[in-house]
Amino acid sequence: MRRSLTGATVLALLLSAAPAGAAPRSEPADGERLSWAARQLGRQALPERDGWAAEGTGTTGGSTATPERTRVVRSRAELVAALGGDNASNAADATPKIIYVDGAVDGFEGPDGTPLNCADLADPGYRLDAYLAAYDPAVWGRVAPTGALEEARARSVANQTRQTQINVGPNTTIIGLRGARLTGLTLMIDRASNVIVRNLTFVDARDCFPAWSPTDGEAGNWNSQYDQISVRRSEHVWIDHNTFTDGDNPDSGQPTYFGRPYQVHDGSLDVTHTASLVTASWNRFTGRDKLMLIGSSNTVGPDVGRLKVTLHHNLFDGVLQRLPRVRFGQVDVYNNHYRLGGADFQYALGVGVQSALYAQNNFFTLDATIQDADLLYDWGGTALTERGTWVRHGGGPARPVDLLAAYNAAHEPDLGADAGWTPTLRRDPVLPTPLVPLLVGPLAGADRLPV
Length: 451
Known about the structure:
Layout: H1 2-15, H2 36-42, E1 70-73, H3 76-82, E2 97-101, E3 104-106, H4 118-121, H5 128-135, H6 137-140, H7 148-164, E4 165-167, E5 172-176, E6 181-183, E7 186-190, E8 195-198, E9 201-203, E10 211-213, E11 221-223, E12 229-232, E13 235-240, E14 243-245, E15 256-257, E16 260-261, E17 269-272, E18 276-281, E19 284-286, E20 293-294, E21 309-312, E22 315-317, E23 325-326, E24 330-334, E25 337-340, E26 349-352, E27 356-360, E28 363-366, E29 376-379, E30 384-387, E31 390-393, E32 399-400, H8 403-410, H9 436-443
Parallel strand pairs: 1-2, 2-5, 3-6, 4-7, 5-8, 6-9, 7-12, 8-13, 9-14, 12-17, 13-18, 14-19, 18-21, 19-22, 20-23, 21-24, 22-25, 23-26, 24-27, 25-28, 26-29, 27-30, 28-31
Antiparallel strand pairs: 10-11, 15-16, 31-32
């Protein structure tokens, strides 16, 4: 059965029509030779009805790009050039563009190709050992750091942002060729609607200069800044068949300072600051802590009525929290497979302020440390719609579970059972839950598309 499902899925991907008026299937202007499949997929639009990003005008990315704006890139400098030429202004470049990533592109690569490290980006006034000595709560107290060392840390962050945050403009498709990796960088999609990102492995978007926040939680926390993909103030974004990982630099391997883990990673895919109409499909999230934050803060304001996101056929594998955590948005979460466990696991679905989560036919494979009631967390929300969930504990049999009832039996106050809406933007019928791991495991993530 796996062979027929895979073939049908690939065929559907290849034959999905690009929008009317798309440019001819020509090679890039730089003379690179691309396979027929790569050219087809580079110009593919999001299929009709495929989640929130299909609403209205849909999501076409750079499908109408001319040969001059169709590039193959192999370095940070080439990626910036393909996006418009100047990282500081590329976010405003609305010319349709298709960018194929070939091999590994490292955000810590200087303009001349020289590898950089955290010391190269540090302000002369910043040293971690001095920062730790100055702001130790036993010495400084539990108030926010201020003064010369904190100012030097902020300047260091600004240096890193200019280097590792790659700004993406509207009407852009970025697609990886087989084995493509984006390492140590953030794709920033800010005020840049109509963007497609596919078939890329994102690795280790590390923060060289995490901030100490002594009032974050009871004991304080180290907080990092850089997501692997950040979607802000944008609409019509399709994130498909990507893999997100910390590689050989997991947060679990970081030291502890002030009694708290020195966390150098933030989210995999955050949707914040009034962004909306996002579809994330067939992605693989593996071995990470924070995954997906939808909504910027608990403050009632511009996010209300926004943050409409669809998550379908994604694999969440060995990850710890925010799968997703939602504020305000109408978020459709269906046919995803969760493989979760370990002492550091926190929760899967975070029900935040005025959130409207609709979770249907998701499959959870759990180790013995996780109970059904642990999969939800109340971050100030009041209700979610949850149906069709199946759970397998350890090597035991899979069984249907009323996840909301399990949560309410173990927690107060209860969460209501009606999120107040019903999704209508779904390309295909929802899979029966027992089939989800059979399909999602082999097909989710990078290097599953025929490029």
